[in-house]
Amino acid sequence: MKLFRTTAGRFVEEDGHFYRIERLTWDALFAHQDLEGCLKAVIEGEAPTTDFRPSEVLAPISQQEVWAAGVTYFRSRGARMEESKDAGGGDFYDRVYSAERPELFFKSTASRTVGVGGKVRIRADAHWSVPEPELTLVINPRGTIIGYTIGNDMSSRDIEGENPLYLPQAKVYDGSCALGPGILVTSNPLPHSTEILLEIVRGGRIEFAGSIALTELKRDPKVLVEYLFRDNSFPNGCFLMTGTGIVPPGSFTLASRDIIRITIEPIGVLENEVA
Ligand code: DO4
Ligand code: MG
Predict the structure, then answer these.
(1) 240 CA to middle of ligand 2, Å?
(2) Which of 95, 102, 205, 211 is the most exposed place for a label (fewest CB within 10 A)?
(3) d(CA 139, CA 49)
């Protein structure tokens, strides 16, 4: 089952049929004691609708915060060590990769987040910007993973590499986060064989493409959530990006009008243009 937030309201999709969700707000759906059961009841109790329009899909976020995990793939560890070696920060990334406590950082709010088809941004004061395609956990206020979406953790690598203490500026700015298209609602973990694909299209041609499987994710999603919820409450639930395992070569930086396409097969395709 997939859940969508659109300009025309909320919809659940199963087997290609869409059903309108009338009574519950987006935040109430996140907080529901039994979201899967509630959506099944909608599917069984309502007639399918033709009102759903893909062009009206919004980012699947309302009052939720977006957090992110870092250095959860070996590739990210290596790239970060390289970018920060002149700043003497390389060792931190190596240490956090193998430490028991993960790196978790605040990433975004609804106002800084775009949905499918929205425009992500690169900072005007950054010279080296990349997308980070990340499996994103959807979590209810009780700390249970209720589903999955696709996230793009847009990052300014030159700012982050200059000094690890600049991380919030490299990561949090207007248009720095994309989520969507909808939420795959399931209480089952995704198979380890699940692939994340990234394509960056420039002038109609693929400028960069890469992929990674969840087998390469070093941390158990449930353990990431357990750390996030330690002494920290999320009354409306939250999102947790699980880190990137795809890093374009050091010579690559995003440009205005690039198209970033991220595919995670059971969830869908998140495509955004760079403003
Ligand atoms: O440690 C800096 C950020 C790491 C990150 O965003 C990632 O590994 O995906
Ligand atoms: Mg990231």
Answers:
(1) 10
(2) 205
(3) 28
Residue 96's H or E segment, with its range, is helix 90-98
89 pocket-lining for ligand 1 (C-beta < 6 Å) = no
CA torsion 68-69-75-78 (nearest 10°) is 110
Length of the chain: 275
- 185 CB-near residues (< 8 Å, 6+ apart): 1, 2, 3, 12, 35, 36, 39, 138, 146, 147
Give yes or no for residue 80 CB within 6 A of ligand 1.
yes
Q: 102 and 243 in contact (C-beta within 8 Å)?
A: no
Structure tokens at 23: 């009574």
Residue located nearest, by CA, to atom 5 of ligand 1:
70
Task: Give the sheet arrangement for strand 205-213, strand by strand.
Answer: 119-120, 268-274, 259-264, 195-202, 205-213
By CB neighbour count within 10 A (0-12 exposed, 13-18 middle, 19+ buried), where does 243 fall?
A: buried
Q: What does the pLDDT look like over 3-49, one tens digit per residue?
A: 999 999 999 999 999 999 999 999 999 999 999 999 999 999 999 99
Using a 6 Å cutoff on CB, does residue 153 contact ligand 1?
yes
Answer yes or no: is the C-beta of 71 below 6 A from any ligand 1 atom.
yes
User: Model pTM greater than 0.90?
Assistant: yes
Residue 90 has pLDDT above 70, yes or no: no
Q: Is the CB of 70 under 6 A from ligand 1?
A: yes
- For the stretch 181-212, pLDDT in tens is 999 999 999 999 999 999 999 999 999 999 99
Contact at 8 Å (CB) between 169 and 176?
no
Report how far residue 98's alpha carbon sits from residue 171's, in angstroms, rounded to the nearest whole number: 22
Task: Fill in the amino acid letter for 122.
Answer: I
